[in-house]
Amino acid sequence: MKSILAFVALLSLSTVSWAQVNRDEYAQAFPSPYQQYVTFNIAARYGVSLPMGGQKGYIDRISPANFALEGEWLFPQRFSLGLKSGYQYTQQRLGRQVISYTSGNTVQDISAVQTRTLSIIPAMASVSYYFADNAAAIRPYVQFAGGGAFVNYTNFFGVLSDQKTGFKGAIAPAIGLKYYGRREQGLGAEIQAQYQNVFFNYDQLQNSSPSLMLSVGISYRWY
Question: Using CA atoms, how far apart are residues 131 and 177, in angstroms rounded to an integer?
Answer without folding.
Answer: 10
